[in-house]
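#onboarding

Welcome to the new folks! Below is a worked example of what a typical request in this channel looks like: someone posts a single protein sequence, and someone else replies with the predicted structure as tokens. Don't worry about understanding the tokens yet, we'll cover that in week two.

Example request:
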Amino acid sequence: MKKIVGIRFKPTGKVYNFDCGAFVLNEGDKVIAETDQGLGLGVVAVQPTQRDEQLLNKPLKKVYRIANQKDFRQIEKNLNSEKIARTYCLFCIKELGLEMNLFSVGSEFDGSKLTFFFTSECRVDFRQLVKMLVKEFRVRIEMRQVGIRNQAKMCGGIGRCGRELCCSSFLEKFEPVSIRMAKEQRLSLNPTKISGQCGRLMCCLTFENETYRHLRNSLPQIGHTVETDRGKAKVIRHNVICNRVVVRLDDGQEFETELK
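Example response:
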């Protein structure tokens, strides 16, 4: 049995399991861990627990050491390099006339690789751009095209609710969102009102969808006839949250009533 610790490398990124060895770690501690790309600085998101490694799909990588001041200085150096790389890459994109929107640059912990994140509505031939970047920075270069939802997650912002975007504050992965969810919750189907900053349907539509579906199952379906204090009436709308329905009598009168 080994102690397994959950480590997150990005503020809202996925939590990865590592073998913490003999280290005594607490939530929030900064550590250096082995990754597929080399050493990386992460934050303990889940405190160490005893778990049989054989139950996991593959052997765990190890926590290399607890982060120190030298590591923090390296992070500051990387941030500075990312700013310089972004400025130069934007200049190159303009010079080459490429139709791409560069929005972020990431550096490996040891500074051996720069990753350029961009969006584009079409396929981009960036071979010449990569040559210019390699010549300038003398490190490995990766160009990564992502969707606009990922762009919003990485860039962050404020939503129409006045809070920080869900995707950049706590969502670890994107869940499927459909227009049916807006219909289930009786929201306006105006795209400007149910779309986030990324232009896609708001992720928060999924938060209460299961609750609405559960509550709606206890209500009579639209079109069914129910017995009310004023006689028999047909259900025409639901007020799910209040557990009420709007009904229409035979003479055309409509009113909202509680279910008995």
